[in-house]
Amino acid sequence: MSAAVDREVATLPRRGLPASEHRLLLGAGDLLVACAAGVVALALWSLTAGFPLQAGFIWSHAYWLMAAPLWAAALTRARHLRVAFSVSQTVNGVFRAALVLLVVYLAAYFYAPRQALPRLMVLHFLWQASLLTFAWRLVYIWVFTETSLRRRVVIVGAGRTGRATLEVIRQAGPRHTEVVGLIDERADPPAPSIDGLPVLGGPSDLRAIAGRLGASEIILSLDGEASGALVLALVGCQEDGVDVVRMATVYEQLLERVPVEHLESDWLFTSFVDAVSTRDASRIAKRLIDLVGAIAGLAILVLLWPVVALAIWLDSGRPILFSQARVGQAGRPFHLIKFRTMVRGAEAEGIAQWAAPDDPRVTRAGRWLRRARLDELPQVINIARGEMSLVGPRPERPEFVAELERQIPFYRTRLLVRPGLTGWAQVNYPYGDSSQDATVKLEYDLYYIKHRSLLFDAWIVVRTIGTILRLRGR
């Protein structure tokens, strides 16, 4: 780097906000906007309903302002930075929040006593909240994607893991982040550039480079152990106020997956085990919810059984149901129950096969059942038995589990929890028919296990309903 450039960048201040502060600002803004939407909705309601807009009217209906925290809660997923800094995904997040609250209100309106709940007020609120939230989010995106406020990032590691980090940030990183270069922990002297970004120096140069460039964050993306010089430099950067994060943390934040191929060997017994143990307190509540869901599912199964059974029988005869060995929690085998969607003798040679796109073994009725995910409905029986949960990693066949354990690191870790009727991998990734697909789905499964909660489960169920309504099953 030339002396002229050195003098130019030496004046750059450290800038940009960390993800936690962005979420805090977004949450506070969403709440304030929702309160303003509540006030505007009350004013519009008074005008359309013929009530005088007086202090007494507003005070007597102030309980409607309780809709503000509900709106802010419904936007929780939209505060993920990958969503918050994308206009299209922000629109999608606001629309989903409005739709969820509208469905909840309509359900309450249906069961409430006659004239107990008004109709216009909730429509006014949702409309105003959607418009004001979208306007506020556009301002936020415009302000924090300006060059002067972008978060400057240096990647420490120019090998395989460093390149993977750079690719993830380029593909999924929010627009408020700017990667200014890499530090090569291996080469001396370092390579001039990697994938179009300059290699700024080696470990001993890190602290000076971070200060000169006004770096806000250093992403540690090493292929091996950190050298003593690098450790000292990282400590110095932290003393200077620069955030130091690991590649796995950034990968999880941006993709909501765990980077299986870039994890340290002790990862399972460090961050993962600690995160899982803190969420075990909800297992009783989760089981109660599973039982309620199983009862509701059984009622739906009884209603749909005659139609589905008749369709299968007319198309390909008996049997109607199909039972197959799967691997459950802690490796315990069980028999999963489904509506039969393939021809009889689909595996006549006794060799387990992946389901392929446009699989010729799938019957005509089975194709529609798969698209609507109705073939999975009998698994509510497995949930009632305690063999499965409503939400969790999908159970695999013993033959596939044995093969994938040999090929994919940490694959057996997904057996720490009950398998699910639906899951985080299912709503984010299509059906897989290879070990590469299984690796990506494992990344989603491990993220779910690490971050699971009842609220996360509820979001996955909502996403699953959307998949079913769009007939996107296979």
Provide a compact summary of the structure:
The chain has helices spanning 3-9, 19-49, 55-60, 67-74, 81-84, 87-111, 120-144, 160-172, 206-213, 228-239, 247-255, 271-277, 283-316, 364-371, 380-385, 398-407, 424-428, 435-451, 454-469; strands spanning 151-156, 177-183, 193-194, 197-201, 217-220, 243-246, 321-327, 333-339, 389-391, 420-422. The chain is of the alpha/beta class and 474 residues long. The strands form three sheets. Strands 3-4-2-1-5-6 form a six-stranded mixed β-sheet, with helices on both faces. Strands 7-8 form a two-stranded antiparallel ribbon. A two-stranded parallel ribbon has the order 9-10.
Strand order of the largest sheet: 3-4-2-1-5-6
- Low-pLDDT parts are 1-11
Principal-axis shape equals: flat
Rg from Cα: 26 Å
Structural class based on helices, strands and sheet pairing: alpha/beta
Write the layout of secondary structure elements.
Layout: H1 3-9, H2 19-49, H3 55-60, H4 67-74, H5 81-84, H6 87-111, H7 120-144, E1 151-156, H8 160-172, E2 177-183, E3 193-194, E4 197-201, H9 206-213, E5 217-220, H10 228-239, E6 243-246, H11 247-255, H12 271-277, H13 283-316, E7 321-327, E8 333-339, H14 364-371, H15 380-385, E9 389-391, H16 398-407, E10 420-422, H17 424-428, H18 435-451, H19 454-469
Helix pairs in contact: 2-4, 2-7, 6-7, 8-11, 9-10, 13-14
What does this entry look like structurally?
The chain has 474 residues and is of the alpha/beta class. It contains 19 helices and ten strands. It has helices spanning 3-9, 19-49, 55-60, 67-74, 81-84, 87-111, 120-144, 160-172, 206-213, 228-239, 247-255, 271-277, 283-316, 364-371, 380-385, 398-407, 424-428, 435-451, 454-469; strands at 151-156, 177-183, 193-194, 197-201, 217-220, 243-246, 321-327, 333-339, 389-391, 420-422. A hairpin with a 2-residue loop joins strand 3 (193-194) and strand 4 (197-201). Helix 2 crosses helix 4 (67-74).
